[in-house]
Amino acid sequence: MKIDVTKKLPDKMDTIVLLLGDKTKGSGAFEHLPAEYAENVDAFIEEGNFDFKYNTIKTLHHVCHKGGARIILCGLGDRHNLTVDRFRNLIASCIRAAIQIKSKEVFLFFPYAMPFSDTALGHVITEGCLLACYRFQKYQSDSPAPTPVAVHAVLDNKNTRHLNHGILEGRIYAEMTLLARDLVNEPANVMTPETLAEAAKQAALDYGFGIDIIMPDRIRRMKMDAFLAVGRGSASEPRLIIMRYRGNPEKKSSIGLVGKGLTFDSGGYCIKQPQGMLNMKNDMGGAAAVIGTMAAIARLNLKVNVVAIIAACENMISGSSYRPGDIIRSMAGKTIEVINTDAEGRLTLIDAVHYIIEREHASKVIDIATLTGAAMAALGPGISAVFTNDEEWMKKLREASEISGERIWQLPVHEEYREMLRSDVADLKNVGGPLAGAITAALFIREFVEGKPWIHIDIAGTAWRDKENGLYSIGATGVGVRLLISLFKLME
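RESULT FIELD:
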């Protein structure tokens, strides 16, 4: 999709989107609009057919004559309540309305100068357009539903340099989010651990970051037995994917980034119900976010050093699968009593976290994972749960959340809850019982961070959508990519 800024209008337009401020009757939105359209739309508004409320959408056909442009009216609401994130979602709603009427080319008209920078304006217009247009239709025989091929922001800015910079930056954020969505949406018979490793390798080649793919024999020699236990029951062998980006070579230390990479999770011998298993191809949402983030920071040439690790495997059932009651030894040397084979993600994460600290010497670590149903139950599909042992770093993540629009909520890691993980036969249990599941999962991972600054993001509720809305289509959301890019940009 082409996205640009224009002052000059063609003689014939396909679709016009009028963004209308609270009780403005069009005002500045009509400034560049041909008179015949402005008069008819103004009359429509005068008749009380539009209320200007935020995200109110009305589509008008043949306002002037048959063959004339279709017009979409979109309410901005009170300008004092218009944030960057609300505007981003509004653009997405407009694009969805344009898709419904099969628009090929869209012209956006604004009622007044937006209350944020030109760079932010270009950025969120681009994100809203590209994210709203996404559909995963790779395996459908019918032709894909048409989406607009061009969106033009009609603005009278004398200098468009900052707008164009925002458009370019927004495209990178959005395209790498779509890369993550594509990876998660692939069915598990296609997206195996080997395929995920190849996808990461291709991203490294395309966007310019380093990669090593560690095969099972070497993983065994490194004694990553917690990770290996989870993947033992699958015919698809595990892969350890290590990605490196050095944008600040003068600095020795790197930030560690770990993504959960379960390409399918049956639950193992603690098997899931069929309905709960259906979308478990999304259990590598953290891994997809990590790949998308690494690609984005390389494209943006950010001045940060990042090392990222994905322990990719499947949790399946066979004669060689790990069992409830097994005691396994982690790479760090701590022993773990397996209470529930469906609490597998944390077992892969702890070996990856230990590796990134001990072998890659990460100075701080952030992990992202579709980890617990408890996080989903607590915060729903729109907010990711976050845990940390470093409040200063957490402030940066909150700022990144505000910038990206990917919402987070911090939950506690109270020390007394660690008692729930105490085992009578090993150092730890892999689950802490029916209560505070998201917290005890975070505490379990914290046992392996060795005092390093650490953030854990649980995206179990936010990685997937069952309904189409705003920026999100049905399926994978690509959550985490825009949040993490924004975080690393703040850390330059």
